[in-house]
Amino acid sequence: MQESFNVKQSLIDALKECGAIRFGDFTLSSGKKSSYYVDIKKASTDPVTLKKIAREASTVIRGMHVDSVGGVVLGSVPLATAVSLESGLPLVLIRKSDKSYGTGGRFVGDVRQGSKIVLLEDVTTSGGSVRDAIEAIRSEGAIVEAVLTVVDRESGASENLASLGVKLVPLVRASQLVASSE
C-alpha cells in the first residue's frame, strides 16, 4: 500500500513540477468554473512526466488482460503512444470522424471483432468526450471495458461510463491533487 501511495505522490509531484496543475479561477470547456486547471498536454510534452504516466498506466493495464491501448485523436495520442511503447501493446487511434481521403476510416491500428481495447484519457470530467469513441469501437465488435485516465476530476465520469458498462480507472483523483496542494 505504501508503494502505491509513493508512486501516486510521485506522479502528483511530477504533474505539478511540469506545470500541468495550476490553481486560480478557470472556465472549463464545459463552461463550469473551477479553482484549478489540469493541462495534461504540458505533461505529455515533458519526457520525465510522460514516462512516469506511461509506467504507472502500464502497471495498471497489465492486470486488465487487454489486446491494445487506444487514444482519441488528438489529445490522447501522446499518452496512448507512450503507454503502447512502455507496455508493448499495440496502439489504436480513434478519430472523431471518418477520414474521407487516403485509406479512410475512423481508426488507425487494428480494431477487430472481439479484441479488448483499454482507452486512455488525459483528464475526465463527465466522460462525454470518450463516450463516442467507446461506441465507435463497439460498433466494430471490439470490447471496451475500461478507460484509464491520468486525472479524474470526480465530476460524474465514473458514473456516466458505468452506465455503459465501462470502468473508469484514474491514476490520480482531483481530490488527491487538491489535498496535496494544501
Automatic annotation (TrEMBL):
Catalyzes the transfer of a ribosyl phosphate group from 5-phosphoribose 1-diphosphate to orotate, leading to the formation of orotidine monophosphate (OMP). Pfam families: Pribosyltran (PF00156). It comes from Methanolobus halotolerans. InterPro entries: OPRT, Or_phspho_trans_dom, PRTase-like, PRTase_dom. It catalyses: orotidine 5'-phosphate + diphosphate = orotate + 5-phospho-alpha-D-ribose 1-diphosphate. Its EC number is 2.4.2.10. One of its GO terms (molecular function) is orotate phosphoribosyltransferase activity. CDD domains: PRTases_typeI (cd06223). This is Orotate phosphoribosyltransferase.
